[in-house]
Design a protein that fits this description.
By secondary structure, the chain is mainly β. The chain has 2 domains: 25-119, no CATH class; 127-245, no CATH class. The chain contains 3 helices and 16 strands. It has a 5-stranded antiparallel β-sheet, with no helix packed on it. Strands 10-7-8-9-15 form a 5-stranded antiparallel β-sheet. A 4-stranded antiparallel β-sheet has the order 1-2-3-16. The longest helix is centred in the C-terminal third of the chain and has 11 residues, at 236-246. The relative contact order is 0.19.
């Protein structure tokens, strides 16, 4: 593995709305905030009309807490000493009312990022760019696909690698198979929520693609062999991040 800390980090936004997450996290008590330090978030979130149907209250396991977004459209659990902070999204196209958060460990490492309202189009995939990929872990999530959605599978948390000059890895939620016959140009880590959140990602990457050596950096987690990647995803270090992502829940669609 090329990075001593394979979980990637992104720069956080300047602190500008410290009160935004005051209803966000608690030790099982939604009225007792404990989100940790907070940063600025898109103004559309604060001005949006509250939805008719919200995510139900939930109790966190011992030593954990619950994060709920300001509009109460999603929630997940995380260790009590981890924090959730709004961030500016990277390159991509997002809905005006989308929200973007980083889940960070006490050491400051970004374990996962959550993005909603994803509208970025998939790039073309010529046959010459197809390359093998491997699923190293997969488990169902406690969220449902929209009943009228076509060409998607039941949402799952997946850990996958795709072959380039090394094995590039990613983990996150998806409702799409990687590609036919075990080859793909890219692996998408998003699901279509059954509410106004639109397409959502929760993991380390929205899309995994193999890169040329000149285009890689510390944020690209790679492995020399499939066995090395499997060992990492089976490790106690990754197990906590896996539990955080798997705890994601959405509010159902109104009506």
């Amino acid at each position: 593995m090329t990075s001593a800390k394979p979980l990637r980090c992104r720069a956080l936004a300047v602190f500008s709305a410290a009160a935004l997450l005051l209803t966000g996290c608690s030790n099982g008590d939604e009225g007792s905030p404990d989100a940790g330090p907070t940063a600025g978030a898109p103004s559309a979130v604060a001005t949006s009309t509250a939805p008719e149907v919200t995510v139900p209250p939930r109790e966190a396991r011992e030593g954990w807490k619950v994060f709920t977004d300001p509009l109460r459209l999603l929630s997940f659990e995380l260790p009590a000493d981890w924090v959730v902070q709004p961030i500016e999204p990277g390159p991509g196209v997002y809905a005006a009312d989308s929200v973007h958060y980083a889940v960070r460990t006490p050491a400051g490492t970004t374990a996962a990022e959550l993005h909603t309202g994803i509208q970025t189009e998939e790039p073309p995939c010529p046959a010459s760019d197809l390359t093998p990929y491997y699923v190293l872990g997969s488990e169902p999530l406690s969220i449902s696909a929209p009943p009228d959605a076509a060409d998607i599978i039941e949402p799952r948390l997946v850990m996958r690698i795709i072959q380039g000059f090394r094995f590039f890895s990613s983990y996150g939620i998806t409702d799409q198979v990687g590609g036919a016959d075990g080859v793909a140009c890219a692996l998408t880590n998003t699901v279509l929520a059954d509410n106004s959140l639109g397409r959502v990602s929760f993991g380390d990457l929205e899309v995994l693609v193999p890169k040329a050596p000149a285009n890689t950096g510390p944020q690209n987690v790679t492995f020399g062999t499939i066995s090395e990647a499997q060992t990492y995803f089976d490790s106690p270090e990754f197990a906590v991040t896996r539990q955080v992502i798997a705890s994601l829940q959405f509010a159902p669609q109104a009506g």
